Amino acid sequence: MNADAVNPNASAARPKARRRLHRRTKRVLLALAGGTTALVLGCVGIFGAWLAGVHVPIASGATYLRVEKLAPISTIDRVGGAPTKPFFILLVGNDSRPGVGGARGDALHLLGVNPAKHQATMLDIPRDTCWNGDKINAGNTRGPRAQADDVGGLVGVQISYVVDVDFAGFTGLVDGVGGVDVNVPTQMHDSYSGAYFSPGLQHLTSSQALAFSRDRHDFPTSDIVRTHNQGILILAAMRQLRAKMQNAPGEFKLLALLGRHAQLDGIGIKDLYKLGRLAFSLNPDQIQNITMPYTGGGCLGLGAGAQGLFADLRDDGIVESPH
Amino acid sequence: MLCSALALGLPLGLSACSSGGSKTQATTATTRPPVLAVKTSVLKIGSVDVESAGPPNVQIDTATGKAVLGVAQGYINDALFAPLKTGKVGAGYGALFDTGVKAAATGADEAVLTDLDVGRVTSLSTRATPVRLSALAGPLGQLMYIATDFQLTLKATTAAGPSTMTHIVELTFAQPAPTTKTWLVTAYRVTTVRKSAAATTTTTATGGTTP
To answer: For the segment B28-80, what is each residue's pLDDT rounded down to a tens digit?
Structure first.
């Protein structure tokens, strides 16, 4: 006895069930095909955007700074695994903040590193320096790479890395490392920047560090002293970070902070690790902080000795001649 | 749990009775002092700390921890125990380092990283602190660097008398390629203090500063 004999409707119902199953299978297959196509298109789109130069930041939190690798370090001779040729890093503090667009490079510091000698020199470039008929800080409005091209062109060096930070990023970074100890060189009392400091060593919070680095109204030479003070702040931060980077856990903590809050372009965590190991093998107390000689007002020209200074920096990444 | 698994899984290092020669050679006089007593250490994990550039709560899996601790053990076997036992660094010493630091580790820094300069000893006892493991995870949570920190104290009797060597060792490991499971030393900070009746010397070597 079969089922059809028990239920005469069963034979009529079977083709219907088969059709329903067929339709359901078709819908699932269509959905799968659609999903796969969307996934492929998405991947192709991301890859295409990457090829076109659109780089997706890997930062998983607020982006404090941008680090871009501009030129390979392959030009460096390697003897016994150690580089012997100098390279240059441009540190840019841009003025982008709520209400102020454009991201001009108001703080420009060129760090020359000589790995073989384990020495470095920091050259502070006044933002009002004339370059190609404009102030040099305008270069950053076209991006950090353009800013590096301008500074590199002025000094006559190829810049390998550029680190760009805005106001919010700067304060975020200083907070991230727990403030910075700075030896304030002179009295500061400036309502524009909010810098109110007595001379001497003191611990600055992020907003105090920002005020210290922005104060120019206290000084007759305005931005010239300011750019030098920024150099002092950078070296103070390096000194502090170096103390924390004396062991692997300290290094990893800082790298994790950078990984979460830096937009990395052409450079990865491994590059940062190696670069950090090298940078913090330098003694900040032995890094010269030199402000570029200038002349004139408004759009500044190169002062006496500037070309000689550039040549001294160019040949081995450090300045040996007295300044 | 992890510590136990790692400790159990590790090779025991140098054996205290590995010479194998038990025959008495009555007719041959030797000027080489026999190894009277050698007691070496097996590294064990102490604390573990992972920093992450990406997702939180990344952990070091047992296999990776075991692999890294194995290389660290290989280091103390080949760089520190072997020279004191045989007068030479272990055959595997150079292979512990990646290309970035190998030249320095087997060249300029070898005198700090190894006990080759001490020479053969007639007795040896060692003590190692638990190994502090720290790691950096990348943006996707992948382990990129793992560092081992420990201190090893060796008390030995040399031809010149009793000697104590203290090694403060930080080895940082990375994988030469993401697809491999091998971990090699990519950076190091090693401080060596050698104390004898004649003098105390402290030397430090730092490797892995190539961008």
So the answer is: 454 555 555 777 889 999 999 999 998 999 999 999 999 999 999 999 999 99
- Specify whether the CB–CB gap between A135 and A127 falls below 8 A: yes
Domain with A100 in it? 65-316
The residues, ordered by sequence, that sit 6+ positions from B24 with a Cβ below 8 Å of its Cβ are none
Contact criterion met (CB < 8 Å) for B135 and A260: no
Max CA pair span of chain B:
70
B92-123 in b/e form (b: 16+ CB < 10 A) is ebeebbbebbbbbbbeebbebbbbbebebbbb
CA–CA separation, B90 and A257 (whole Å): 39
| Residue A322, domain member (yes or no) | no
Angle of CA points B23, B25, B31, to nearest 5°: 120
Relative to beta strand B45-52, strand B131-137 is: parallel
Beta bridge partners of B3: none
Q: What is the pLDDT of residues B122-148, one digit of tens each?
A: 999 999 999 999 999 998 999 999 999
pTM: 0.73
Token pair for A280: 């913090």
Residue A241: what pLDDT?
Answer: 85
**Looking at the complex, does the CB of residue A189 fall below 8 Å from at least one CB of chain B?**
no
The whole-angstrom distance between residue A31's C-alpha and the CA centroid of its chain comes to 43
Residues A37 and A122 placed together within one structural domain of the fold: no
Q: Do B104 and A253 touch (CB under 8 A)?
A: no
Helix (H) / strand (E) element for A135: namely strand A134-135
Does the residue A56 lie in any domain? no
ipTM score:
0.81
Name the A residues in 85-114 with CB < 8 Å from any B CB: 87
Q: Is the domain of A284 the same as that of A137? A: yes
Q: Looking at the structure, tell me whether residues A194 and A45 fall in a common domain.
A: no
| Mutation for A interface: B48, B58, B136, B206, most A CBs within 10 A | B136
Indicate the helix (H) or strand (E) that contains B104: helix B99-105
